Write the structure tokens for this entry.
Amino acid sequence: MVENRAKELIVIAILLALAMSVVNAAVFVYYPIGISAQWSKRPMYFAEGNNAGGTDLSGTITINLSEDDTSASITVHPSRRGTTHYKDVLRIVNGDAQAYYIGFSVDTAFDDAAIAEAELVVRDATTGALVGTVNLRSTGTTWSPWSLGAGGQLRVDLRFRVSSDASGSDSASIQLIYSPQSAESPP
Amino acid sequence: MVERLYRIYSFFYNLNYYFKILMLLLLLLITVAVATASVFIYYPAGITTSWVNPSVVLLDPGTSGVLVHLYEDDTAADVEVASLGCLVLVERNAFIYDDFSTNPLLGRLTVLGSSRPGASWDSVNQYLVFDATNSASGGYNLDHMIAYYSTPTPSGTDRVYLMVKTLRLSGANGLWKGLFLFQDVVQRNYYVFMFWDTPNTGISRIVSNGYVRLATSSASDYGIWYVQWGVRDRISPGNGYMEYKVYELDTQNIVSSLTATDDVHQGAPNYVGFGGALNRREVLAFDDFVACADANPQFVNVTGLEFGWTVYLRDNRGALVAQGTAGSDGVASLNVLTRPIVRNARLEIRQGNIAILPAQSFSEVIGGDVYECRIKDTSIIGLQNQDSKDYNVYLRVENLQTPSGYSGSINLWVGSSATPIQIVGGSVVVGTSSTATLYSGATAFIHGTFSLTPPPSTPVVLTLSFHYYIPSSEVEVEYPITVRVHG
């Protein structure tokens, strides 16, 4: 009697399993979504600062802009002793009719031990007022964020404190981040 | 469907006004939120730095009293500076100076003849009065009333200078007052420089009761204060040469100027004094008597100055008494003709509006004094431009530590910069020096003046930054310099 009851239960379980497998079978349901991308003129762009191309301690302050002024490379020649300041080498221009919020991320930091301090200093291009600084000796995102009004410009300065017995070089890669909102941080 | 839309319309239509506004704002907010969604745009930038040799290096200038420790390939320095002090009185040439602030008749001044009853000290006005209206007679020589100081002329003195202020308080014209230069008091051998009311101002030689006029000129006493000034050479080569001038006190205009040479009373003056021929009718006042050995009491001299530094002499209320500017010889002469004795005086040195030495107090400054300025323009660090470019250079104060109770003045500048860093007491008055040019291949110096009064027990510590920059591109390099100034 008990044995029959068990058999019944096994059959029911198998049937149930079959029923479940039918329900969870490879059924795919498709809903259509349309994504439309409309690229337009970039609202923000880099521009050469007043001292771009100017005389450096050795050579010149070199600024190369590319990708429709959305990519920049800077080359400077600080003293291997003391602290060297570069003023107004690069500009960040808001060519749009709305304000944007700005920050930076340091993807590759200066890591040569000779560089004791490396800092990107952002100032209001008109007043010279300090907006903020970015430590170029460590990676990470600086997102305070800083506001740049429609048509406004920010000035990028650089500061290096190098302590080295000999000449040398190092590079850092950073990214300018901007967004029309400030509530959320960049990913 | 139409009915459903109509229901929505009716719903909004029937809402009250404010709720409608609220709903609209809500819709707007949702729209903005959608429009400013979390969009982040990234622009890449690369920075390459290649460090190069320093363009400017620091040097030890080898200045005496300055210890320089250079490090970091001569781009940083610690400097120890010994403050050399301030103004020091090195010569007091006045062997008698009396402003009659105390009664001179109580010992230091002897009145000759029978005029004594008429001599009195005016404690209010602080001058000496000879009053002959009570019939006090001179009875010494021609009714002279004479006072002389017990202090003799120092041995070895070549020239004796005398000054006194006189005022005819009352009495008719026709009498004189002046300076007395005794060869011998007892024998009544002396010279007198006399300022007369009528045209007989002169230099006379007196022997006992007789006199010889050696020089005369015309001058009038208008009953105002005058300054009488005279000098006599006691020994060769100019022995017997005398010079006598009378000035109006207020204007310093010369009323009379005479010279004479006579050496009958050799060695005179051995004693000095003042007096007059009151002739039983005149009242005279005397003030600010000074006798000086080999120095003119009309001037206070300050040596050891830099060209262009100006010395100011002020009284205890801060009123300016005299000022003088150093020439290329580094000496400033302050004319104290009208006020040769200044109690509780202050001397101050400035270069334009820069305080080289804040007011330093002296219990008294006397005509004929010589002060030495031990504040030097000191080169504390050398700078060498090793580049082919010119640079602009300047200094800035980053930090200042002063011991409690410190007072004094520190100035620091680079090369020929016009405005130095200025520190007075514990305050930074000017924190950045003006800019100078350091030409390619040139060497210049960071200069300083240091006057710490009184010398502090612990040093004043200055943290500076030396800057050089390319004017056209604003590339600027700074080096740290620490300066410790010891008292």
Notes: Chain A touches chain B through 62 residues (CB under 8 Å). The first helix of chain A runs from residue 2 to 23. The beta strands of chain A are 44-48, 62-66, 71-76, 83-94, 100-108, 115-124, 130-135, 140-148, 153-162, 168-179.
